[in-house]
Amino acid sequence: MAAELLANPASKAGAIETTNGSCLCGSITYTISGTPSTTVLCHCTSCKKSSGSAFMANNFYEASVNPQFLSPPTDEISVFQLNITSPTSTLKMYNDTSPDAGGFVERSFCGDCGSNIFIRNPKWKGAVIVATGTLEYEKALKEWKPEAEFFCKRRGPWLSSIGANEETKFSAMT
């Protein structure tokens, strides 16, 4: 079940690596420490509209974004994998109430160029979801492969030969 992939968003075993990322215009830069707990293609309508594509490629990381960048600010999490490294005057947040899973997700994006940066979902308080396309590591992006797909009921039929293994394709997120 999809929920099992996300129930414990601890990073996978292995060397701690730091990866840089940024929006298209470079106004927002960040670092990610560690490896993602899972890699996902999401086919929900909300992610499709947000990404402007047939799906959205996401990396799930443990902990969350540094609380000074949240709206409203919080001190609930003391370990951060995602750290915004540039001035955040262009970082905007949108409470997206349209996800197929119900509820809402908080989408953070650049107010100048519109690039999606990360997503927080109240259902997964210990996780931050980073838009894979904003990462700047060429080798890892060449090796990136989805471990799961969510909302396959909305998956384009022409995508039949790409994506995750059949056993990790879910019609919804939970």
> How many DSSP E strands?
10
Strand residues, percent:
25-35%
Overall CATH architecture: Alpha-Beta Complex
**Rg calculated over all Cα atoms:** 15 Å
Mean pLDDT score, rounded?
78
What percent of residues adopt helix (DSSP H or I)?
Answer: 10-25%
Structural class: mainly beta
Query: How many helical elements?
Result: 3
In CATH terms, the superfamily is glutathione-dependent formaldehyde- activating enzyme (gfa)
**What pattern of helices and strands is seen along the backbone?**
HEEEHEEEEEEHE
What gap, in angstroms, lies between the N and C termini? 7 Å
Biggest sheet, strands in spatial order?
A: 6-7-8-9-4-3-10
Annotated CATH topology:
glutathione-dependent formaldehyde- activating enzyme (gfa)
Organism: Lachnellula cervina
InterPro entries: CENP-V/GFA, Mss4-like_sf
Domain CENP-V/GFA: 19-145
Keywords: Lyase, Metal-binding, Zinc
Report what the structure shows:
The protein is mainly β. It has a single domain, classed as glutathione-dependent formaldehyde- activating enzyme (gfa) (Alpha-Beta Complex). It has three helices and ten strands. The strands form two sheets. It has a seven-stranded mixed β-sheet. It is globular and about 40 Å long.
